[in-house]
């Protein structure tokens, strides 16, 4: 065996056939599924209806022939009497011939005396089997199924009360008439043919009508599909729900809700892109102007001044890009899932404040932290929460004058872990407190540098954690002209783990 063939053989042995496609990934046909659920019960019930029809037909076929047998037993019983203690029959030969006259079935009869002695008829006709406690009665004609010479027969029998001396028990003679089941089977077959044969004609018609009804009933879906397909790529207008059947209205309403959300999202994206492009123009235009001015300068001092302005414009553009990326990350962060974990809000706030100490020294602002001695835990995304708190601190440092103070505080009540960022700056007017969370919104008259995205990022991250950002005046402000601002976020405390039985306190 060559080396190449050995490699091919090993590859063949290592080959594993592809796994079968999961049933969840297979697209199902609504038309076919409805058709299956309608036709499958119909095709299952059809054999049952045939079996029930056969049983009913046999019952119907038995009734007239049982009446005939009953009449024969009654007539034959009238011919049996006792004379001098002996059972005699008054059945003439012509009556016997009439009794046995049948072109299809074989007819048998038998007369037995009180002690089982044979009086007349067919000796081989089996007698009825009675229980030990059951006594024969002469009240009615009874029926049973049995066999004669290996052939199934239907037997009608009755007990005839004979004359007897006074004071003694009346003897009973047995009279039986039996016939084979040929006529009954023929009649039952005729009944079945009369019922089943039309079903063979009706069933294809029913199938065709079901097919046509389903196609007609599902046609509004096809029409809705054509109307949606005929729309332009930018047409997000709602679909008229009155043009579809009532059963499809919930689907159309849900689709209209999705179109409305999609339209709103597209409008927000367009506005965001337009605002971002407009905001990027300023630092880019400044960088271009300063670079062109530096190229025309010959004095080194002027060149240095232009380069400083160029660095400031570059820093502003970098900050704007970073804010845009942070906002994009916040908007694409899932509200719940693997990104959420149990973390210490107090430890996160303390470390974030430490990151901004040097920036507060440069701005000559007192930055402090107040928190509990024990860690205060919540469920959240540590990266996004750190970004949110950094934007709150940055916003406070940017909009308050030198000599003011900023305090980051972590505390708790019975149900919430509360994060607060307060400052002693000019504060935010109540009319502006909702608008400051809009993208690129800047309070008029404020000359502080910024992109207008910091508080938008804060609100988006807070929404991702299921909390709202509340703005108040600083209750600890001491100067009327500087009411300060207080940003507050209340995070729900995670549920306490159940106490194990072994850890439960014991009170003796």
From TrEMBL:
Record-linked SMART domains: HAMP, HATPase_c, HisKA
Positions of the HAMP domain: 215-267
Sequence ranges assigned to domain Histidine kinase in this UniProt record: 275-495
Transmembrane segments: 37-57, 191-214
Enzyme superclass (EC): transferase
SUPFAM superfamilies per the UniProt record, alphabetical: ATPase domain of HSP90 chaperone/DNA topoisomerase II/histidine kinase (SSF55874), Homodimeric domain of signal transducing histidine kinase (SSF47384)
Keyword Transcription regulation attributed: no
EC number: 2.7.13.3
Keyword Membrane found: yes
Gene3D superfamilies: 1.10.287.130, Histidine kinase-like ATPase, C-terminal domain
Intracellular or extracellular location(s): Membrane
UniProt cross-references to InterPro entries, sorted A to Z: 2CSK_N (IPR013727), HAMP_dom (IPR003660), HATPase_C_sf (IPR036890), HATPase_dom (IPR003594), His_kinase_dom (IPR005467), HisK_dim/P_dom (IPR003661), HisK_dim/P_sf (IPR036097), Sig_transdc_His_kin-like_C (IPR004358)
Superkingdom assignment: Bacteria
Main location: membrane
Keywords associated with the record: Kinase, Membrane, Phosphoprotein, Transferase, Transmembrane, Transmembrane helix, Two-component regulatory system
Reactions mediated catalytically: ATP + protein L-histidine = ADP + protein N-phospho-L-histidine
Protein known as: histidine kinase
Provenance organism: Duganella qianjiadongensis
């Amino acid at each position: 065996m060559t080396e190449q063939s050995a490699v091919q053989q090993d590859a063949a042995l290592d080959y594993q056939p592809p796994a079968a496609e999961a049933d969840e990934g297979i697209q199902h046909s609504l038309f076919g599924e409805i058709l299956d659920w309608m036709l499958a019960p119909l095709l299952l019930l059809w054999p049952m209806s045939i079996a029930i029809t056969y049983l009913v037909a046999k019952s119907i076929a038995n009734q007239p022939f049982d009446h005939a047998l009953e009449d024969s037993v009654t007539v034959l019983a009238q011919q049996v009497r006792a004379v001098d203690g002996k059972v005699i029959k008054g059945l003439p030969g012509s009556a016997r011939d009439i009794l046995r006259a049948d072109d299809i079935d074989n007819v048998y009869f038998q007369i037995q005396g009180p002690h089982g002695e044979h009086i007349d008829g067919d000796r081989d006709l089996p007698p009825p089997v009675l229980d030990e406690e059951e006594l024969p009665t002469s009240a009615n004609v009874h029926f049973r199924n049995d066999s004669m010479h290996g052939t199934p027969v239907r037997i009608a029998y009755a007990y005839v009360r004979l004359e007897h001396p006074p004071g003694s028990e009346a003897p009973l003679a047995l009279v039986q008439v039996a016939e084979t089941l040929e006529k009954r089977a023929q009649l039952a077959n005729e009944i079945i043919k009369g019922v089943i044969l039309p079903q063979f004609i009706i069933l294809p018609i029913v199938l065709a009508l079901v097919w046509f009804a389903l196609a007609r009933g599902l046609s509004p879906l096809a029409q809705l599909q054509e109307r949606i397909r005929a729309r332009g790529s930018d047409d997000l207008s709602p679909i008229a729900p009155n043009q579809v059947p009532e059963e499809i209205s919930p689907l159309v309403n849900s689709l209209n809700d999705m179109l409305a959300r999609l339209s709103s999202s597209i409008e927000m994206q367009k506005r965001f892109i337009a605002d971002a492009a407009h905001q990027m123009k300023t630092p880019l235009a400044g960088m271009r102007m300063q670079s062109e001015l530096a190229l025309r300068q010959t004095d080194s001092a002027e060149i240095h001044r232009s380069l400083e302005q160029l660095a400031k414009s570059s820093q502003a553009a970098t900050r704007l890009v970073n804010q845009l990326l942070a906002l994009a990350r916040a908007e694409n962060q899932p509200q719940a899932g693997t990104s959420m974990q149990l973390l210490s809000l107090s430890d996160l706030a303390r470390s974030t404040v430490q990151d901004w100490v040097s920036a507060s020294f440069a701005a000559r602002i007192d930055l402090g932290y107040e928190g509990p001695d024990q860690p205060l835990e919540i469920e959240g995304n540590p990266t996004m929460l750190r970004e949110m708190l950094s934007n709150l601190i940055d916003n406070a440092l940017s909009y308050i004058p030198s000599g003011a103070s900023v305090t980051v505080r972590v505390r708790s009540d019975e149900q919430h872990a509360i994060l607060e960022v307060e400052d002693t700056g000019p504060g935010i007017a109540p009319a502006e407190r909702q608008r400051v969370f809009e993208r690129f919104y800047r309070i008029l008259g404020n000359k502080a540098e910024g992109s207008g995205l910091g508080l938008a990022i804060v609100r988006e991250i807070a929404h991702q954690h299921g909390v709202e950002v509340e703005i108040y005046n600083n209750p600890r402000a001491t100067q009327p002209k500087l009411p300060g601002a207080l940003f507050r976020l209340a995070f729900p405390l995670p549920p306490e783990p159940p106490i194990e039985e072994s850890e439960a306190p014991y009170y003796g």
